[in-house]
Amino acid sequence: MRVGRPSRRARTLLMTLGVLAVLGMAFTMFAGFWTDWLWYRSVNYSSVFTTTLWTKIGLFFVFGLLMALAVGFNIWLAHRLRPPLSAMSMEQQNLDRYRMGIAPYKRWLLLGIVSLVGLIAGASASSQWRTWLMWVNGVSFGQKDPQFHLDISFYTFDLPWYRFLLGFGFAAAILSVIAAALTHYLYGGLRITSPGARATAAATGHLSVLLGVFVALKAVAYWLDRYGLAVKSSDFKATDSWTGLRYVDANAYLPAKTILFCIAVICALLFFATLWRRTWQLPVIGFGLMVLSAILIGGLYPAIVQKFQVQPNEQAKEAPYVEKNLKATREAYGIDDAKVTDYEGKSSTTDKTKLRDDVDATASIRVVDPNVVSPTFQQLQQIRNYYAFPTNLDVDRYSKDGKNAGDQDTVIGLRELNLAGIPKNNWINDHFRYTHGYGVVAAKGTEADDEGRPVFTESNLPSKGDLGTYQQRVYYGEKTTEYSIVGGPQKEIDYSDDSGEKTYSYEGKSGVNLSNPVNRAAYAVAFSEPQILYSGAIGEGSRILYNRTPKQRVEAVAPWLTIDGDAYPAVVDGKIQWIVDAYTTTNGYPYASRTTLGDTTADSLTATNNSRAVVAQQNQVNYIRNSVKATVDAYTGEVKLYQWDTKDPVLKTWMKAFPGTVEPKKDISTDLMAHLRYPQDLFKVQRELLARYHVEDANTFLSGSEVWQVPDDPTNKSGDAVPPYYLSMKMPDQSAQAFSLTTTFTPNGRDNLSAFMSVDAEAGTNDYGKIRILKLPTSTTVNGPKQVQSQFNSEQDIAETISLLNRGDSNVEYGNLLTVPLDGGLLYVEPVYVRGGGLKYPLLRKVLVTYGGNTAFEDTLDEALNKVFGADGSTTQPPDDDGGTTKPPPTSSNPTVQQALDDAQKAFDAGQEALKKGDWEAYGRAQKDLEDALKRAEDAQAAADKSGGSSAKPSSSPSPRSSPRSSPSSSPSG
Questions:
Q1: Rg of the chain over CA atoms, in angstroms?
Q2: One domain for residues 128 and 230
Q3: What is the DSSP letter of 156?
Q4: Where in the sequence is the domain holding 496, given as residue range(s)?
Q5: 67-100: pLDDT as tens digits
Q6: Does some domain include residue 633?
Q7: In this structure, are 214 and 326 located in the same domain?
């Protein structure tokens, strides 16, 4: 049955559909480009978009065209050098069918091949835009490597570009050889089975030149490999991330690369000589010699040197190269000025009263853990379900009145938008009505109230407190991941109070204007949401906000920076500003050992909160600087980049590539400067390197006897590293407290303490960034964090109380285990929280303290410190059957007072019984009754004293037993 041609109408319909499909694909690509351009223009970083775009386009066309010309020229040349047709062999008869088949399409086939290889090569080259910009804008480091005495910029900026060019040259040569060989074979220049010569003279000359080019490029590779030894990573028993030359590299590989370079040059000349000799004999011999030399000189000889020269006397041979690695690594990571001081680990002071007084002068100990109390903030300050706080809150500094940064450590979080909590999810609610969070919530870091709750210094909705007046609306935050359309006819929900919902219309200039129908169509396609195109909720003044997390915005406007995992908010100059630390990195610093950012910055917090992970442009680095401090306005979304490290040559290079994007350091306001701090991820990288590179002696480094490790978090069973902690404290050589970032070290494979490390974290001070390490003696054993935690858990009284607190549906949560150097010893403090018993959030119930072998587990930090240092004058009595401490019950000759004391005793006993059952509601009622009874006793005693009566003064602690939380107002209810 014959199938007829489609009708004209059908052909027209198919053609129309085809055109529409092409237009649809074209508009989809245009929409992505156009929305990107509009976004960069909206944040005033259009130069980043255009510079990046034109660089990619330029590289694409230049290298795509070069590859296409190289392959196309060699195909054309091979076709032009084809031999005249002669007597047909069977092989040629078979090929003739292919020649006849492609003859009408030769030009189109050539165009298709060169276009394909050009597109692939251009796309590959365009991805090297960072390499190109760093090469063309590179500035000098002003330092030279110790081996070749070249400026470090050669390795960081030049060598990567040369390697790319070399790789491109190899690819062009190989593709050209393959294309030319196939063309010669197709047209008879090469023969496989035909009798006679296997190749014509023209084909021999052509292919020999191409192979000569390939071998010449190999010679260049050998020469560059010599310099590559300075940035080569290798396994070495001293460290698994060794970088730079070792003895075998300098004395075997380096001369071997030079010899192989000479052999490759001679071999390339032999290939070129076939243009006149027309024989493969000498080039093949030369190529074989080069391969044999690569095996013997480049492989066997270094192995012999390593086996018979290095291994018998490794320390002496490797020591000079280890010294170079030590020096370069410490410089590259900014740890060359780290001060290591010997520390006894135990106090020699016998005056416990003085020690107790020294605690307050030494540290403002933070018992409110920002990584535990987020649910407490949520429960007490969420106000509405459509608000939420981050999983991990932040620590900042504010003065007592809260108006400026100062000497009070403060736990702070923003009440951000939580779309999962809105009453009804639909497109209008999700993107038009619920658009922003509202207000800062802050609490003192050093104390909790009598019920174990944070003491808020900024709270309620709208937020009120010590921070004064500021723009409270949060349109940009860590939890704000959806787009919003604001400023148009649809009003937003601002916040709700007792009088009802308040509405608002965004007044900022952030986002992209949607009044243009082209913009609306582009965003409808980009966000796969057709309602953007025709919705009546969008009108004059409507603006679309997206890319709304602080880290996302900074990464977008500065794609050459690595972004710290923790952005934190601060009230600065009447605005909520997100502060983001950013780094410049490279993996081309000679002799500096490499580290993997993703692994080095991981800890127990990033394991449970991926949003705190570092945003790395390159994961393997061996140079890092906190070169930029960035801010993101929580209301306007404005991004500002400030030059922080004014000496960093990598930042200077990027500032040349993107002029005008980074503002000078002097533009940082005084208020902003007061809230800047030393970044956590940089500190984690530095502590990981200092675990090995705190030593400066090559022999000690090689022996591995001084290797430390970052301990696992003792309060977390994940097995991940303990996070560093912000804390206001003073080190032994400091005269006053400074806001610091701290961590501990243990010996490799052991749990006792090796060292304590801190860095001055308060920007704007002379000591900012100064690293201090207190090294514990190896002759004695000082407990490390895991051992301290085990000690807490193993003491009978503490274990029994913890068991009581864990009963029923209640469970104990340990806060940060803080370490504070104190008078030669080490003070450990750990807050203990309880969650449950009808409460969905943790409350501070106990504080664990240990110092010099003395341990206390009390209701408050002051009580625990007093007990550890004996400052309260109390002595511990033998425990009774319930694990308490026996005290005589209070008595009074005044009947009214005695009745009140009896009531207090009953309330206390009821509280103890409720505590054993884990009934927090009953415990709270009992504590309230206890407080009322004590108040009646005090009032009655005061009245009796005023009237001249005589009675025994009632005890403030009427119970015959100590309780896990015996403060009269310590009810967990409410």
A1: 37
A2: no
A3: I
A4: 481-547
A5: 999 999 999 999 888 887 655 666 666 666 767 7
A6: no
A7: yes
Q: Verify that 113 and 162 share a domain, yes or no.
A: yes
C-alpha closest to that of 80 among 175, 180, 173, 172: 180
Rounded Cα distance, 426 and 415, in Å:
22
Check whether residue 182 and residue 257 sit in a common domain: no
With a cut of 70, say whether residue 767 has pLDDT above it: yes
User: What span, in angstroms and rounded, lies between the C-alpha atoms of 225 and 217?
Assistant: 12
Nearest to 955 by CA among 889, 866, 874, 902: 889
Q: How far apart are CA 524 and CA 527, in angstroms?
A: 6
800-819: b (≥16 Cβ within 10 Å) or e:
ebbebbeeeebebbbbbbbb
Name 458's Cβ contacts closer than 8 Å, sequence gap at least 6.
Answer: 402, 412, 439, 440, 441, 442, 464, 465, 466, 467
Query: Is 139 in the same domain as 107?
Result: yes
Whether 374 and 413 have beta carbons less than 8 Å apart is answered as yes
Q: Are 918 and 838 in contact (CB under 8 A)?
A: no
Q: Which pLDDT score is estimated for 4?
A: 57
Split at pLDDT 50, 70, 90, the class of 904 is confident
Q: Domain boundary residue among 199, 230, 253? A: 199
Question: Rounded distance, CA 270 to CA 282, Å?
Answer: 6
Using alpha carbons, list the distances in angstroms from residue 718 to 458, 687, 712, 713, 825.
34, 20, 9, 8, 29
Look at the block and give the residue holding tokens 């704007």.
Answer: 764
Is residue 28 a part of any domain in this protein?
Answer: no
What is the reported pTM? 0.85
pLDDT digit string, tens, across residues 265-288: 999 998 888 877 767 777 788 888
| 818, part of any domain | no
- Is the pLDDT at 367 greater than 80? The verdict is yes
Please name which of 505, 638, 657, 486 lies closest in space to residue 576, comparing C-alpha atoms.
638
> How far is the C-alpha of 201 from the C-alpha of 278, rounded, in Å?
6
Contact 809, 918 (CB under 8 A): yes
The first and second tokens of residue 599, run together, are 């692994």
- Structurally, the chain folds into a number of domains equal to 4
Considering the domain architecture, whether residues 226 and 195 belong to the same structural domain is answered as no
The highest-confidence range among 612-616, 764-768, 933-937, by mean pLDDT, is 764-768
Q: Are 923 and 911 in contact (CB under 8 A)?
A: yes
Residues 49 and 166 in one domain: yes
Contact yes or no for 74/179 (Cβ under 8 A): yes
Residue 638 dihedral angles phi and psi, to the nearest 5°: -60, 135
Distance in angstroms (rounded) separating the CA atoms of residues 463 and 402:
13
d(CA 564, CA 581): 5
From the list 555, 388, 510, 407, the residue with the least C-alpha distance to 38 is: 510
Give yes or no for residue 959 having a pLDDT over 70.
no
The per-residue b/e assignment along 232-267, b for 16 or more CB within 10 angstroms, e otherwise, is beeebebbebbbbbbbbbebbbbebbeebbebbbeb
What are the structure tokens assigned to 18, written together?
Answer: 């085809």
| Those residues with Cβ within 8 angstroms of residue 881's Cβ, 6 or more apart along the chain or in another chain | none
Strands of 415-560 (E only): list them: 416-417, 437-438, 440-448, 454-459, 464-465, 473-474, 484-486, 492-497, 500-504, 512-513, 543-545
Give the C-alpha separation, 173 to 67, whole Å. 9
Identify whether residues 132 and 209 lie together within a single domain: no
- Token representation of residue 28: 């989809």
pLDDT tens track for 813-859? 899 999 999 988 999 999 999 987 677 889 999 999 999 888 899 98
CA–CA dist 849, 21 (Å, integer):
71
163 lies in some domain? yes
Q: Collapse the DSSP code of 398 into the 3-class scheme (helix H, G, I; strand E, B; otherwise coil) and give the result.
A: strand
Out of 169, 199, 229, a domain closes at: 199
**Degrees to nearest 5, angle at CA 177 with 173 and 181:** 170
Nearest to 856 by CA among 919, 912, 803, 788: 788
- Judged against a pLDDT cut of 60, whether residue 873 lies above it is answered with no
Strands 233-236 and 239-243: antiparallel
